[in-house]
Amino acid sequence: MREFFYMGGYAPYVWSAYGITLAALVLNVWWIRRLHRRGLEQARNASDEGEPAPQARVRQL
Amino acid sequence: MKLPVWFHKLGSPPYVYALAGKLSPWLGAIGCTLIAVGVFWGLVIAPPDYLQGDAARIIYIHPQTAYIGMQAYVVLAVAAGIGFIWRLKVAHAVAASAAPIGATFTFCALATGSIWGAPTWGTFWEWGDPRIMFELLLLFLFLGYMALRAAFDDREKADRVSAILGVVGVVNVPIIHYSVLWWNTLHQGPTIMQLGAPSMTTDMLIPFLITMFGFMFFFYWVLLDRLRAEIVEREQGARWLRELLAGSRP
Asked: pTM for the whole thing?
């Protein structure tokens, strides 16, 4: 087990490379989740006020 | 030119929002599983390289992140082009969604490459190296595309102007791919995408390909999720979204 973490002396390189990549992947997922949730909240709040948001009136499909 | 029905459907935000929501969990499950299996295989089961020892284990993430970064740019450019020609908002939303994800992968490729370079090339960074420079340019193209979009208050204008940058920048992708063949560089040549058999033994090739496909599924997973978030942002005030939130839309 210790040998595994030692990585033949390359431990700082191997583990930092994997760590950075893992962190980037996780942050991506977390950030996107947050973005989506906030967008839905905003839409919910706008529709609670009963009036359509200003974009709706000028919006054309 | 007459376009098929499915093409029109893919232009409809509510349809794409629902479709992406159905597909994304599958892609996510497959992607995460493949990455976990491939990383375990690469770190534990695969043998150390005869020349580079355990440092070579970075090969199970570095080319993958680089490749997905390039693929993200192609997705961005194609989507931006489609959006520009057919004035499809959803296509522009795809392009806008691909940019930050592609930037993340490209950053990972540069970071892992730099870390790998330290013990093997004796340097973290080499300004004269074409592969590194064009990869860095790819990162700047992603960031430039995002900055250009952010510079416009009018979303339609942002879509159209940024699409031009997106499409033009795609020439960088084949340049990155061929850079190791066209110039003398520190970077090694292609391992898999070459004529003839891959220059890697099977016990290393298997985890290499598993993480490659894993990252690919992962990319399309987060792309679809980001696209959904992007659609919600663009469709604020739209009736379908209100109905969806009220639960009156199936």
From this structure: 0.90
pLDDT in tens, B113-133: 999 988 888 888 888 888 999
User: Cβ contacts (< 8 Å) between B65 and chain A: which residues?
Assistant: 21
Beta carbons within 10 angstroms of residue B196's beta carbon: 5
Furthest-apart CA atoms within chain A: distance in Å? 65
Tokens 């209100």 correspond to: B242
pLDDT tens digits for range B19-75 = 999 999 999 999 999 999 999 999 998 888 888 888 889 999 999 999 999 999 999
Contact B245 A43 (CB under 8 A): yes
Q: How many residues does chain A have?
A: 61
How many other C-beta atoms can be found within 10 angstroms of the C-beta atom of residue B218? 25
Q: How many independent structural domains does chain A possess?
A: 1
Residue-wise pLDDT for B222-236, tens only, equals 999 999 999 999 999
Q: How many CB atoms neighbour CB B233 within 10 A?
A: 18
Q: Which residues of A touch B105 (CB under 8 A)?
A: 24
Residue A48 sits in which domain range?
A: 2-58
Q: Name the nearest CA neighbour of B42 among B75, B13, B64, B73.
A: B64
Interface pTM (ipTM) of the complex? 0.88
Structural domains of chain B in order of their starting residue, each with its CATH number: 19-45+55-187+201-246 (1.20.120)
Write the CB contacts of B148 (distance below 8 Å, at least 6 apart in sequence): B158, B161, B162, B165
Q: Which of A2, A3, A6, A10 to mutate to test the interface with B (most CBs of B within 10 A)?
A: A10
